[in-house]
Amino acid sequence: MTNWSSAINRDRQPGRYGADGDVGIILGEIQAATQMQFAAWPDTLDQMGAVAMATAGVATVPAAGRVSRAGDVSLLRVEPLKWWLVSPAPLATPPLVASGLASGVTSGVASSEVGAVLDISDARCWITLTGPRAATLLAHSLPIDVRPTAFADDAVVSSAIHHVGVTLWRADDGFNLLVPRSYAASIWQLLFGLAQQYGVEVR
Amino acid sequence: MTATAAQTYLHRFAVLPGERVVIATNNDSAYDAARDLAAAGAHVILADARPDAAAKAPDHVDLRRGLVPLEAVGRKTVAGVKLIGSDARSGQPDAIAPCDLLLLSGGWSPVVNLLSHRGGKPVWNRAQACFLPGDAVDNITVIGAAAGCWEHDACLESGHAVSAVVGGGRAVLPPPGGWATPIKPVYEIRRSGASKTASAKKAFVDFQHDVTTGDIRLAHQEGFVSVEHLKRYTTLGMATDQGKMGNVIGLALMADALGKDIAAVGTTRFRPPYTPVAIGALAGRHVGAHFRPLRQTPLHDWNLAHGATMTMAGIWHRPWYFAEDGETISETYIREAATVRKTVGLCDVSSLGKIAVQGPDAAVFLDRVYTNMFSSLPVGKARYGIMLRDDGMVMDDGTTWRLGDDDYLMTTTTTQAGKVMVWLEELLQTRWPDLKVHVSAVSDHWAGVAVAGPLARDTLAAVVEDETQLLPAALPFMGVIKTRLKDGGTCLIARISFSGELAYEIYLPAGHAPAAMDALWQAARDRGGCLYGSEALGALRIEKGHVTGAELDGRVTLDDAGLGKMASKKKPFIGAALRARPQLQQADRPQLVGIFPQDRRKKFKSGALLFPAGETSESVGESVGEFGDGFGAGWITAVTHSPALGHWIGLGYIAGGCAAWHGRRVVASDPVRGPDVAVEIVSPHMFDPKGARMHD
């Protein structure tokens, strides 16, 4: 969408900050992404999973705590009955969404008897953390073990930073963080401050 | 200080902490310290409690056997130590040993803390006078000094022995101990035969928390026989050293008082951390502005750039008022509220809670949650709803919009959004798991802007792609549409009014809000409009008698708030049964009213109590009249200067409500902050009571 504003515009100033030497952490943001929730009923898990899978264009329906990816599009299993589709770009195929004022597009396929689809694109700020010390940085803030042995590629988890519920997944040796938009500036400041001791590049 | 502390000063910092040193000890380890200090040039007296201590003194050390320190001598600084015989048989006369430093060495307590954290129980070893690791926990083998090996060689040997474990074998460890002369436990020093309680001098057990031998005995006298209770009563071992210095002594004294062995008394479980950790390290970055996370609306930067003074609503930053040159807050909000009634105003209401309620049973669910009916709400319409707690009291209110047959958007108050979300999840997961409903927090997805005032439609028309959608026929009062702005962005527009004016709330995907607000503000400014903050928002709603958290404070029923008609008789809902309790139906319960000052030039304050005239709070002690119990007949929840009425007004509750007080004299009493103000009780709907302005 044109005229889109980030929640961390003021705080995210590209540049090189903190400790000298090698860059330990690279912080970035993926802006104006598409985020969509697919929610099933207990007896329609397979059907709704198939809807989510088809919309995302991924090969498998991710199991609990896992992510399926195809290109830039990721499908996250965030709750027993819920998936989130996240994509840096608008979707090529319109989501199969029940009709209604709330929907982004109204090509009704998935009736409410199958599940519910919800556009949540602006609800969360998508922060990326890469670099050799990214896991160390997260260890400062998150109560979970994010080392590769415990948190492998394509693992997703709901946790908390500074008491704020966040969603974290690992992909291609980096971490992705979805932070509720209203808290994003506060959390970004916290991560940026912590990252400086390892040398940080903001993109 | 301890003997090893002096060694550390010497070896690590090259500081000799005293020139004339007395070391009081009961074990061999102090001999090393004595030797080192003497070698560094100090005059050292080593007072060893053991009459049978090693035959040979270290070089240049004055070794005196069978002596213990009774008291330190000197003012402000130590000048000497009174040494007495360690037991009646020692035959030593009292002597004052002059010194400028007194060092103590009472033996060692192995670091069993880590093992204790793992659930291992330390066991008392009488011979070594310390707690040693007990039975093995998991596959942990404790070696070295942690296992009570005092000598260097034994420590090395235990290290070698444990290597057998790595190969799957059993480690044969050297026994604990290793001193040439066994330790002589010394827990309290008094003259032989002296009463335990007679001495007026204090003998400290826990140097950090100033716990004395007397405190331990007092704890025993008070009946605290368990070590856990002893600890909590005396605070023994609760300072930053976590009892490393004094715990064993305290336990020994307690055992003595109980006539038990130390092993029978036991020890408290050690807690992490072993070494002190600064509170600052635990607080980390949760300080200052990050003491709590802050929530910002999507228009935060926009508001600041347009002159907002911000205020906190819970953890939200919200615009409070938009002062123009030199305006005070009062001048500002009065101007803003007056402008809304005259032309148009824009207000960031993004912090309101928003919850998507989706699924084939969404309508059924909302009918149960709200007191009024939502299944009958047509698609494209909004309705004001109130939800009660199980006990029949009002929990929260807000409008809920029907976006599709199975698709609602619920709004909540800013402060209760999280609570309502948790409540709805709890209901769905525990009470009605059979309902096919999903609730999702979308507060952060949508930015909300109130566009209020006679020119609100005109203002919106300037920014939407198709202004005919705003015509009253297309968007009547309480109507909702999804539409497109001129810049291509989509939005939801609901024609709802908190101010009592013709008003809309436009919901924009958050990222699009600043750009859309630019366009809205351009349109509003062209029409003589203004930006307004929460202060003007409050003034406008008080004029209308609309309730907020100040009025819905958890003690209020629907009827109290004048909203009894919102309780459906056609369906059950949460709170329906208990709101019918006789006590909640009494006619003299406090009910929502409006409040005017009798002298319209006067003002009164929120929080004041309402009394019948002549029964103000100052006469409470005399308890005159019906409301002489000090609580008054009611209270004031909110006040404002009303730009529309030209004087101060308020909302509040008073027993029996408006009808009961018609024509009666009432005072608002707030004796701490000012004199009583005579007021009159009026309908809470103080401005445009029929709502003509917000309809067409």
Question: What is the strand and helix layout of this fold?
Answer:
The complex is a heterodimer of chains A (203) and B (696).
Chain A (H helix, E strand, L loop, with lengths): L14 E3 L7 E6 L3 E7 L4 H12 L10 E4 L2 E7 L2 E6 L27 E5 L4 E7 L3 H8 L14 E6 L2 E8 L2 E7 H15 L4 E3 L1
Chain B lengths: L2 H11 L6 E6 L4 H10 L3 E6 L12 E5 L1 E7 L6 E6 L9 E4 L2 E5 L7 H5 L5 E3 L4 E3 L19 H15 L37 E3 L4 E2 H9 L5 H8 L12 H12 L3 H4 L13 H5 L11 E2 L3 H6 L2 E6 L2 E7 L6 H14 L2 E4 L4 E6 L3 H8 L11 E8 L5 E11 L2 E6 L4 H15 L6 E4 L4 E7 L3 H6 L18 E5 L5 E5 L8 E7 L3 H14 L3 E2 L2 H11 L45 E8 L11 E4 L21 E9 L4 E9 L1 H4 L5 E4 L7 E6 L14
Parallel strand pairs in B: 1-2, 1-7, 2-3, 12-14, 15-25
Antiparallel strand pairs in B: 4-5, 5-6, 8-9, 10-11, 13-14, 15-21, 16-19, 16-20, 17-18, 18-19, 21-24, 22-23, 23-24, 26-29, 26-31, 27-28, 27-30, 28-29, 30-31
Helix pairs in contact in B: 1-2, 5-7, 11-16
Main attributes of the structure:
heterodimer, A: 203 residues, B: alpha+beta, 23% helix
Can you describe this structure?
The complex is a heterodimer of chains A (203) and B (696). In chain A, β10 (164-171) and β11 (174-180) form a beta hairpin. Chain A has helices at residues 45-56, 134-141, 181-195, and strands at 15-17, 25-30, 34-40, 67-70, 73-79, 82-87, 115-119, 124-130, 156-161, 164-171, 174-180, 200-202. Chain A is α+β, with helices and mostly antiparallel strands and 203 residues long. Chain A contains 3 helices and 12 strands. Chain A is globular, with a radius of gyration of 17 Å. Residues 97-109 of chain A have low confidence and may be disordered. In chain A, the strands form 2 sheets. Chain A has a 7-stranded mixed β-sheet with strand order 1-12-2-8-11-10-9, with helices on one face. Chain B has 696 residues and is an alpha+beta fold. Chain B is built from 17 helices and 31 strands. Chain B has a 6-stranded mixed β-sheet with strand order 22-23-24-21-15-25. In chain B, strands 26-29-28-27-30-31 form a 6-stranded antiparallel β-barrel. A 5-stranded antiparallel β-sheet of chain B has the order 17-18-19-16-20, covered by helices on one side. Chain B is elongated.
